[in-house]
Automatic annotation (TrEMBL):
UniProt keyword terms in alphabetical order: Apoplast, Copper, Glycoprotein, Lignin degradation, Metal-binding, Oxidoreductase, Repeat, Secreted, Signal
Main enzyme class: oxidoreductase
Signal peptide: 1-31
Any Gene Ontology biological process: lignin catabolic process
Claim: Cytoplasm is one of the keywords in the record: no
Catalytic activity from the UniProt record: 4 hydroquinone + O2 = 4 benzosemiquinone + 2 H2O
Cofactor(s) demanded: Cu cation
Family assignment from sequence similarity: Belongs to the multicopper oxidase family.
Domain Plastocyanin-like: 44-157, 170-321, 434-566
Localisation: Secreted, Extracellular space, Apoplast
Native organism: Gossypium harknessii
GO molecular function: copper ion binding; hydroquinone:oxygen oxidoreductase activity
Protein name: Laccase
């Protein structure tokens, strides 16, 4: 049957099409600047890898160690299908990605999702909004991130430039930590016996330990540069339990970005980077080819009382020789060493962190909340807990080391907090009575109180949408003062100030920088000191906050913020995807 349009119907159809074209024009204009969708597939599989003369089977993505680099542009959407082929439950966290209204893709196990079980898969679906720079992805369950990690490179939008000289080339420099033994066995044994887990055997640069370790000379990362050229090094600390000092012998670095936020450029010989942090630096190669190779060295900044892996990983910076230069004498070129600070140089650490300031330009403004709706004071540190009745602990009186915030050691639930929140099924899963202040005052950085027993529970803070939060985090000297790198999921925060000793609520706020504070997702709470931050709770969902020293996370140094939906349609958490894993 053929239908014939009347003249009036034809007119209406043409009018509709013309209106449609007018409505579509802005969308088409937007589409030019909108991102594209990028697809990745992560097959989680076991792979034999040899380091330090020993071969072991490790958990990898696609058989690669470290894992594959994810490259995207600001505004792009990412669809990353993770398929679990190993015996362990797995989740992946996209560290530092804001996950605006897409908390289901954030990744921490039992916080935003149940883990992906053996033989199952899950598609992480999120858009990179208003961010550009270096971040990274890692497993977020147990200690699997020891080998499951890789860099995320977010390029600026097309035709947008860096606010610093365009580098000749860019390289990721990802620091890791290597154990000869199986890391899952290590943490499981430690949790079962109430002892401290064994320390690592080596640090790595892009998966390679380097020449300072036995039988590792061939397993050395080499960076080849051309004289006079400028290189962008994208530094990532993916180590489990150690903050690191990093230096390139006889070269000065210019810091231009921290945690995927541009900073006021400053020159430094040494970079301090905690687990969970990323730092972009420019390295300008010497104008003429020197008759030397240069060590790129990293070793721990360690302030706590516990033993630590006091070794150094070394990569090598080499200058490319011209074709006419003889390669026969390449073996005889000396390797110049990089001198690093003392392992406990907290003064250097403080000075370095205070140099990091936001650009605060018209193009890259600082949106630090000027008014504060809610103030919190969190003590961060160690303590003790009784061992469970069916457990025999190494400690006296059947106690074990633990860690907590405001005296609460977090108990991981057996279902995901975000699902419980979204479906209003929080009863029996979590409570929202996390303490705003410590339960009692004491000299936090002085003589510890007699009772150092922690409370435990799955306690959260509930925030209304768009609440501006000021949080002071105070280290304690219980079981020894220690620097704690605290990571907040779902947000960037502004680092207003930091200091040594106990925070003084009367005097210290006068030191707050509200003009150009560093904007980060991970900050070191200074050893025996405090740090003050602010953030705007403009992202509905459940957001994990924890120490990025994995041993402390295992011991309970973690909590979560529930940000409730706002009133507008774009202020509400999206519903869960159909393939969200079940517990």
């Amino acid at each position: 049957m053929v239908s014939v349009l009347t003249s009036s119907a034809l007119f209406k159809a043409l009018l509709f099409l013309s209106l449609c074209s007018v409505w579509l024009l802005p969308d088409l204009a937007l589409a030019k600047h909108a991102g594209i969708t990028r697809h990745y597939k992560f097959n989680i599989k076991m792979q034999n890898v040899t380091r330090l003369c020993q071969t072991k089977s490790i958990v990898t993505v696609n058989g690669q160690f470290p894992g594959p680099r994810i490259i995207a542009r600001e505004g792009d959407r990412l669809l990353i299908k993770v398929v679990n082929h190993v015996q362990y439950n797995v989740t992946i966290h996209w560290h530092g990605i804001r996950q605006l209204r897409s908390g289901w893709a954030d990744g921490p196990a039992y916080v935003t999702q149940c883990p992906i079980q053996t033989g199952q898969s899950y598609v992480y679906n999120f858009t990179i909004t208003g961010q550009r720079g270096t971040l990274f992805w890692h497993a977020h369950i147990s200690w699997l991130r020891a080998t499951l990690y890789g860099p995320i490179v977010i390029l600026p939008k097309r035709h947008a430039s860096y606010p610093f000289p365009q580098p000749f080339k860019e390289f990721p420099i990802v620091f890791g930590e290597w154990w000869k033994a199986d890391t899952e066995t290590i943490i499981n044994q430690a949790m079962a016996t109430g002892g401290a887990p064994n320390i690592s055997d080596a640090f790595t640069i892009n998966g390679l330990p380097g020449p300072s370790y036995n039988c590792s000379a061939k397993e050395t990362f080499k960076l080849k540069v051309k004289p006079g050229k400028t290189y962008l090094l994208r530094l990532v600390n993916a180590a489990l339990n150690d903050e690191l000092f990093f230096r390139v012998a006889n070269h000065t670095l210019t810091v231009v970005e921290a945690d995927a936020v541009y900073v006021k450029p400053f020159k430094t010989d040494i970079v301090l980077i905690t687990p969970g942090q990323t730092t972009n630096v420019l390295l300008k190669a010497k104008s003429k080819t020197p008759n030397a190779k240069f060590a790129m060295s990293a070793r721990p900044y360690a302030t706590g009382p516990a033993t630590f892996d006091n070794t150094t990983t070394i990569g090598i910076l080499e200058y490319k020789k011209s074709a006419s230069a003889s390669s026969s004498n390449n073996m005889n070129i000396p390797l110049l060493k990089a001198k690093l600070p003392q392992f406990n140089d907290s003064t250097y650490a403080m000075k370095f962190n205070q140099k990091i300031r936001s650009l605060a330009t018209r193009k890259f403004p600082v949106k630090v909340p000027k008014k504060v709706d809610r103030r919190f004071f969190f003590t961060v540190g160690l303590g003790i807990l009784p061992c469970s009745k069916n457990q025999t602990c190494q400690g006296p009186n059947n106690i074990r080391p633990a860690a907590g915030i405001n005296n609460v050691s977090f108990v991981q639930p057996n279902t995901a907090l975000l699902q419980a929140h979204f479906f209003n099924r929080s009863k029996g899963v979590y409570t929202t009575n996390f303490p705003t202040n410590p339960p009692f005052k004491f000299n936090y950085t002085g003589t510890p109180p007699k009772n150092i027993m922690l409370d435990s529970g799955t306690k959260l803070v509930s925030l209304n949408y768009n609440t501006s939060v000021e949080l002071v985090m105070q280290d304690t000297s219980i079981l020894g003062a220690e620097s704690h790198p605290l990571h907040l999921h779902g947000f960037n925060f502004f680092v207003l100030a930091q200091g040594i000793g106990n925070f003084d609520p009367k005097r210290d706020p006068a030191k707050f920088n509200l003009v150009d504070p560093a904007e980060r997702n991970t900050v070191g709470v200074p050893s025996g000191g405090w740090v003050a931050i602010r953030f705007l709770a403009d992202n509905p969902g459940v957001w994990f906050m924890h120490c990025h020293l994995e041993v402390h996370t295992s011991w309970g140094l973690k909590m979560a913020w529930v940000v409730n939906d706002g009133k507008g349609p774009k202020q509400k958490l999206m519903p869960p995807p159909a393939d969200l894993p079940k517990c």
